[in-house]
Write a structure and sequence with these properties.
Elements (H helix, E strand, L loop, with lengths): L5 H29 L3 H27 L10 H16 L3 H32 L3 H34 L1
Length: 163
């Protein structure tokens, strides 16, 4: 796909974020499996369901634009997930591994926040109000997930890892 306009860039980035969500749907169950803390496991499971919904919402936006959802594979997400799995396999202590799982999950959330923020801004610039509202809603969900992870890390996971 040649990118010759903001609309083209917008569609390409939507295709990338759809790939991100698809990769997360596959990776989150593995993250939940390596997590030890029950609240962390539950949080990952909850985010899995949210991620499936987000993927569907992005695919719906792409359908409205007659764009092929599977046009792109997000390689940055592939690399982040590979690193997360590598760290999880290197850390034997359960508390330390949970701290690493949270760090990896937040890295992913921050990436998604950046992408959804850009997409929502571009949708607004392009006059795509329906898209913009959907993207802003997903952006807020990602921010809430990041906040929950931060609270869990500060309250339990990081103190346990430090002892």
């Amino acid at each position: 796909m040649n990118v010759n306009s903001l609309h083209d860039l917008y569609i390409a980035e939507l295709q990338e974020i759809r790939s991100v969500e698809e990769q997360l749907v596959a990776a989150l169950p593995r993250m939940a499996d390596v997590a030890d803390h029950a609240e962390l496991k539950q949080g990952i499971q909850t985010h899995l369901e949210e991620t499936r919904t987000q993927q569907s919402r992005v695919e719906e936006i792409l359908r409205r634009h007659n764009a092929e959802p599977r046009e792109h594979v997000d390689q940055a997400m592939q690399a982040m997930l590979h690193e997360a799995e590598k760290w999880a396999s290197m850390v034997q202590d359960r508390d330390l591994r949970d701290a690493g799982v949270i760090a990896s999950a937040q890295r992913v959330e921050h990436y998604e926040i950046a992408v959804y923020g850009s997409l929502a801004t571009w949708a607004r610039q392009l006059g795509l109000d329906e898209d913009g509202q959907a993207l802003l809603a997903i952006l807020e969900e990602e921010k809430r997930t990041d906040e929950r992870l931060s609270r869990l890390a500060k309250r339990m996971i990081n103190p346990d890892a430090a002892t």
